[in-house]
Structures are given as C-alpha cells and as structure tokens.
Amino acid sequence: MTDTFTLVLAFGVACLAAYQVGIWFSAIGLPKITGYLAVGALIGTFGIDLIPTSAADDLRFIDELSLGVIAFVAGSELYLPQIRSRLRTISFMAAGIVASGLLLLGSAIFALAGIVDLGREFSAEERLTVAIIGCVVLLALSPPSTIAVIKDVRARGSFTSTILSVTVVMDVVVIILFAIASGLAVAVLTDAGLNLGSLGVIALDIAIALALGFIVGKGLGWALTRRWPRLAKIVLILGLGIGIFSLAGIIDTWTAENLAFEIYIEPLLLAMVAGFVVTNATAQRDQFESLLHDIGPLVYVAFFTLTGLSLKLDVLLELLPIAMILFVVRIIAIGVGSSSGAAAARSDRVLITTGWTALITQAGIALGLAREAAVQFPELGASFSTLIISVVVLNEVFGPLMLKASLKRAGEIDGGANEHRDAVIFGIESSSLNLARQLEASGWSVKLVDRDDGQVRRAADEGLPSVHVADLNPATLDGFIDASVDAVVAMSGSDADDLLVCTHAVDAHGVQRAVIRLDDLSLAPEMRDRGVLIVDHSSAMVNLLEQAVRAPQSLGLVLHNDPNWEAVQITVTNPDAVGTEIRQLRLPQDVLVVAIVRSGQTIVPNGFTTLRRADELSLVGSPESLAEVTLQLGF
C-alpha cells in the first residue's frame, strides 16, 4: 500500500470506524479518544494489518495539520479577562506543579531510563535531557476534556473556575517549556554541546517563534474579517496548521546550510501564540472559536487514530508496568505542586486539599507533544513515545472520574445550592397546571397552592406538588413562601387573594419575581409600585394578535412555537462575570443579550455594558447555548 491516495482513502475509512467506536466508548463511560486510539492500534501491523504501522510516517501531514489546530485551540482557551481575578492563585499553582513535576517526574524518568530500553545506552547528560522532555510532556493537562466534564455535571463556582483556568494556563506553560527542552535536546543529543552559545540559540528560537506567532495571529485575525465563505476560512486554518510546520522546516534547513548555527522554531509554540493573539488582540475571537469548534471533532478523530496506528503494541505491553509507575508518580507530583501552590497563594481550603484531584486528565496537547518529540528526536526510539502515550491514556481514562469526584466534594456540581430555583403558583386551573409543567421542563421546582381541596387533589393526581390552604393570611402564606422562593405567580381568579399573596411575597420576603393576573385594573398602580408584573388577560390576547401582525418571529419565542429558540432571564451571581463587559463574556454566537434589569431599571445593553452582581439578563438563543450561559453567569 504505497500509493498515497489509496493510503489516505484507507485511513479515512478507518477514521469513520474510529468515530463510531468513540461514540460506543463514550456510552460506557470511557473517553472517546480511547476508542480512536484503539481503532488506530487495531488497523496497524500489530492488529489486522489494514494499514502498516510504518505508514504513519507517510501520513505525517495529517499529524501536522492536527497539531496546528490543537495548538490554535490551546492558545484560544487562554482568554485573559476570564483569569485576571485569579491570576495569583493560578500562577502559584502552575509554578508549584512545574517545580514538583520537574523534580519528581524528572527523577523517575531519569531512573527508569537506565532500566528499560528507553535510554540504556545514553550518557547521564543525555538521560537527563530525555527525562526533561518526558517530564514536560507529562505535565500537560487537557482543557477540552476538563470543559466537557464541567458541562456534563453542570458544575459552577470558584473551585470550578480556578481549576479550569489552571488547566488552560498549564498547557501554555508546557508548550513554552517544551520549546526550551527541545532546544536543550538538540544541543545534547546531536553532540553539539551545551554552552552559552547554544543557550543563546534556544532563546533566539523562542523569540522568533513568539514574533512569528504574533504575525500569524494578526494575519489570521485580518483574514477572518473578510467576507469569505465559512468553508474557505476553515481551509485557511487547516492550511496554516500544515504551513507552520513547513515554515519551521524551511527555516531549520536554511539556517543549517547558510549560518553557523541552526534555528528551529517550535511549531506548536508558534501556533499557540497565534491562537492567543486572535483571541485576545483581535475582534474575531467569537468567529475563531466557532470555526475551531467545527473543525475540532474531525481533527481529533484523525489525530488520535493516527497516534494509535503509530503505537507498537509489543512495546506497549512491555512498558505497561513502567507506565503505571509514571502514572502514580505524576499524580503525586501534581498533588504536591498544586496543593503547595494553592497554600502559598492562601487559597480556599477545598482548593488546597482537593484541587489536585481535578488536574489529572490529559489528551490532545500531551499526545501531540509526545508525537512531536518522537518525530523530532528519532534517537529516542519508539519506546519513548509509546511509554508517554501509555501514561497519557491512563490519565485520560482515570482523570475525568477524579475530576467529577473533586467537583462533587467542592459542592459545585449542578451549580451548587444557588442553582436550585423555586416557584410558587397560587390558584390551580388548566392554565396554572400547564405553566407548572413548562417551568418544571425548564428545571424549576414548582409548588401549586389553592384554597379548593378538590383542585389540590387534581394537581396531585397529575404528579404536581400541591398544597391546600384553608385560610389565607400572613401566617399560612409563610408556610409556602419564604426568601428562598425565586418567583410567585398569583392567578386564583380572586383579586383580593392574589393581591395578598403578591404583597406578602414582595414585602415580607423580598421575592424579586412576582406576577399577578388581575381582573380589576384599578389595582394595577399599587402592584406596579411594588414591582409586581401585571398580566391583564382581557387585553393580553389583543396584544398577542398585534405582535403576530407586527413581529411574528418574536411572538414565536413567547409562545414556544420554535423548539430551536428560547427566551430566558438569568440573574448574574458568578463573581467572575461581575465587572466584565458583555463583549468579553465569550457567549455562544447564537445567544443575544436583549435587556438588563438593574435596580428596577431596564437597560438596553451594548458590547461595552459592564455586568454587576444581581443584574437580570434577558437572553434569546438555542436551549443548549442558554443552558451553557446559565452556568457561566448565574441562574
């Protein structure tokens, strides 16, 4: 199978199979990438031999394309406005992890390199270099996997935000460290020697990568402003992924032939900086993130399947005990480093004692660096990349389980106690029963109340929580209304009773969302003064008909005629969102902030409107995106 087209075609079929296997793995609680890796290994020489394992070298361009996109994603995840408030804690924890990782993991790899076939013939200096490269690769974390777990369990809070920020920052730090380690390895493994001159070349390599990354990022940001088809922009990003590696090779070859020293710019560092620049220094952050979101799944399937194909299963089985040792040492190193860093930053106790268990997961960047090291330094042999990939797979399998457990211990799964929303509906009839069902479908806990025992039994028969109250007075109202209630709806048909319910809810318990259905509109001014929303059913139908004539699409939102769009109101409670401009929120592209209610006043926002705590945001968007924004901002 030497024909490139046939090889690519066969690999494409394998990727389709890997995608489906990944879905099956996910259904049983295992990471999708484990399925991709398994299919890649199965189709290779050590499996059914559909594609020779040696063919991975002929498919190197897929590696380069994928790694470029993965590095773009890593850079785009580092959005400065979101981490500024926790920069001290993040910096201390990242520094602690790097320090303990270099010491513990580096020592373990150095010792094991003299035992296994990994580096038995290396000198002590060479083994030290190998240990540094392996340690740096194993310190990489996984923002995409971490985000996936957080969304899955609907976690929100200070602990969750800090862990995600540390995960993102660590990948950036690791890529920079890898560029430094690669420079050291070139000097040592090629017998060029390590001296001040070689250190200067390493510094020059990094400086050029940073400068070129800035130029590429600005250029990409400009390109995204063009009115080009979306497909053209996707092709541009994929092309840049390959082009960055080609540029690095051209500079390396030219300097080796024309200069007294060789310059090698780390492609992953260049691409990461470019992604960072687009996200933080251009106005195309949202579009860039959306394009990467579309590209990501295809790229990940191809990359991880190819990584599995390159695995030598005989070596994997031989090195598995060593991989398990490094897996344990890595957990210890992260535990020591993150806990000591959090303690030095005087963080919350839960972050000091539990944070390390949320930082075990690995995926794309770690595997990418392992593959890059194997290609860049063939002197390390197949054992090196196979060993590192084995450890990464163990971390990817067990890491998400530990992350879920840590979020649960921190009390931030399902958004913590503040995520729960309660509504009380006074008056049971067909309309109130339908309202209760719709609120429950949106995640609210609803309690129906009525003075008619027969109506209460009717609601109970339909499976809705209901309470009978014979005598309506402040004492009996306190039995089902308190400060924890988020909304009260009074629609009993008795204006006197409804007026008493809403007045007591607002005046005695400070309920912010009180709604009354009035028959006697002379009572409306009193209710408006208390901030109660009035529904006049006699004119409601006329208003809806008018809206249907003037703006039928907006009426569809109100009537829930289109399941693809909803309108919701969210209270800002997340401290990270307070003081942030709307344009800096990284909201999904299909979500629009249409109004803000602040201290009883309605504000029509723009991108520069700064959020405050307890702001009530009215948003329109898809149900999935609105659920994501709810976790990001509040409840």
Overview of the molecule:
The chain has 635 residues and is an alpha/beta fold. It folds into three domains: 63-416, Na+/H+ antiporter like fold (Up-down Bundle), CATH 1.20.1530.20; 420-535, Rossmann fold; 551-633, 2-Layer Sandwich (Alpha-Beta Plaits), CATH 3.30.70.1450. The protein contains 24 helices and ten strands. A six-stranded parallel β-sheet has the order 3-2-1-4-5-6, with helices on both faces. Helix 21 links the parallel strand 5 (513-517) and strand 6 (533-535). Helix 5 crosses helix 8 and helix 7 (143-153) packs antiparallel against helix 8 (158-189). The longest helix is centred in the N-terminal third of the chain and has 32 residues, at 158-189. The protein is elongated and about 90 Å long. The mean pLDDT is 79.
Note poorly predicted spans.
none
Q: What is the total number of structural domains?
A: 3
Instruction: From the alpha carbons, calculate the radius of gyration and give it in angstroms.
Output: 29 Å
Shape verdict: elongated
**Helical stretch tally:** 24
Strand content: 5-15%
Secondary-structure-derived class: alpha/beta
Q: How are strands sequenced across the largest beta sheet?
A: 3-2-1-4-5-6
Report the mean per-residue pLDDT as an integer: 79
CATH architectural name of the largest domain: Up-down Bundle
How is the biggest beta sheet arranged? 6 strands, parallel
Q: Would you state the CATH class of the largest domain?
A: Mainly Alpha
Helix content range:
55-70%
Under CATH, the topology of the largest domain is which?
Answer: Na+/H+ antiporter like fold
Distance between the termini: 57 Å
Secondary structure tally: strands: 10
